[in-house]
Description:
Blueprint: E1 6-10, H1 22-32, E2 38-47, E3 51-53, H2 83-94, E4 100-102, H3 110-119, E5 127-132, H4 137-147, E6 155-161, H5 167-173, H6 179-193, H7 197-201, H8 203-206, H9 210-213, H10 222-229, E7 238-241, E8 244-245, E9 248-249, E10 252-255
Helix pairs in contact: 4-10
Amino acid sequence: MEPMPALYLSHGAPPLADDPVWPGQLAAWSAELPRPRAILMISAHWEEAPLALGATEARPLVYDFWGFPEHYYRVEYAAPGAPELADSVRKLLSGAGTPVQDFPDRGLDHGAYVPLVEMFPAADIPVLQISMPTLDPRKLMDIGRKLAPLRDVGVLIVGSGFFTHNLAALRHQGGGVPGWSAEFDAWGGEALAAADVDALLDFEHKSPAGRLAHPRTEHFAPLFVTLGASMGELGTQRSVIDGFWMGLAKRSLQFG
């Protein structure tokens, strides 16, 4: 079996489903991928330490957003649970000294299900979501390295965030693409193309407008799990989706 790719995607928000372009881009991307045996999701919207495993049986979605029209709270995504994948994650992480806990009632949050609805609408692939136990890029890369063997057995590892994310600055900026968002996106694309991991790890200081693009780093952090799971293959990376949505960079990446 060829190793599965590893992905970092910008997951948007519930209104992504109404965008005239982005859902089709996600659907076309998934159509090009080998069919996964299971999907492991790391979302910007679940921070929990020690690292936590979500539900391994079907559970209601986590509608972790406020003030949206009612129909966004009626979306369903009843993907099968992935207990075998959960066991494998426990063995890989616990055996390597990373403590693991279980949250058996926690369903998928919008960072997980919003893109999955567009990419795998049949909801027939087992999905497991795990938490980020830290926002430290180096520690997240180490977790990704430990999880990398899952790719060899058909698991699609997906870090789900947003390539730029500062909603407060957007509210004060008005329409269009803010300069800080465009500058950070261009810098990030160049750093990835050059496989400059050191620059990416220190993005808050080495990038233009890094602190404006990510005043809190949780939406960039899942990238480092993906990078860790892809070490040795950084030269294969490609930006599958780029451009902007509501002023935020939707750059989404595939490794392998």
